[in-house]
Amino acid sequence: MRVVVAAIRRMWLKAFLMPILALINLMTKSKLRIPVKDRWGFRIHLSFILSKEGFLQKMEKLVIKTYIMRRIAPRVDIRGARNRLIINIDEDENFIDAYNDLADKLRKYPEFFKGSQMKAIVKGKEMNNEERNMIRELLETRFGFNTLFLNPVEQKDDQLIKFVRTTIRSGQVIQTPGHVVILGDVNDGSEIKAGGNILIMGRTNGLLHAGYPNKNDSFIAAFRLESLQIRIGNIISRAPDRKRYRADIPEIAYVKDDKIFIEPLNQKSKML
């Protein structure tokens, strides 16, 4: 029996650990010592003598590769579509570098762009008025484009989601302009106030106000909706009697006909 167990251990070491150690050795150029002890069961102690020079070389290559890939990526991407020229400027690029890159690309084909009466749509990078004027002067004065700038898309406050990974205790107030997800319970004496929806992955006894101050199309959902009072927009309601509450069914509260309705949260829910 011992012979079989020892053979299995050797096979496991050869088939599983050795390839991993070889890979580590290859990546870090390190020397590996593998003392193997077989007391009180099978134990493997791995000690690595890392080559500092090898590790630094790998890091240096990684930095160089990242830099090269960053420089390969175009500062300015130009595409034509239906009498429009779409110019996408890398949002992280230095403006002067991006401006020079755009000018160089346009100068390569002046006969193609000159007098074409095309509309140039510039997007990607956020620019101040001075930078926009420089781009506009380049496109309109030198090449005759009608220039339109598109601002970077900004996420609206009511689209933001705030995650709270703890239980909300008495006296605590959580307020956010967007949606809120509570990964815990909401205790008595606490308050959750959100401009959007409220989702509670636990039991709730505190005051809940979704759609603050007057957004009635929001909702409140919880594993155990036991709050004495809930608000959605400018509508106020009381939750079901705790004594009759069925704790095994998550519920959702929403507004319909200026009233708050509370129903089981499942695939048949009207809100889904």
TrEMBL record:
Keywords: Cell cycle, Cell division, Septation. The keyword Cell cycle applies. InterPro entries: CAP/MinC_C (IPR016098), MinC (IPR013033), MinC_C_sf (IPR036145), Septum_form_inhib_MinC_C (IPR005526). Transmembrane segments: none annotated. GO terms for biological process: cell morphogenesis; division septum assembly; regulation of cell septum assembly. SUPFAM superfamilies: Cell-division inhibitor MinC, C-terminal domain. Residues 163-263 form the Septum formation inhibitor MinC C-terminal domain. Belongs to the MinC family. Interacts with MinD and FtsZ. Cell division inhibitor that blocks the formation of polar Z ring septums. Rapidly oscillates between the poles of the cell to destabilize FtsZ filaments that have formed before they mature into polar Z rings. Prevents FtsZ polymerization. This is Probable septum site-determining protein MinC. It comes from Calorimonas adulescens. The gene is minC.
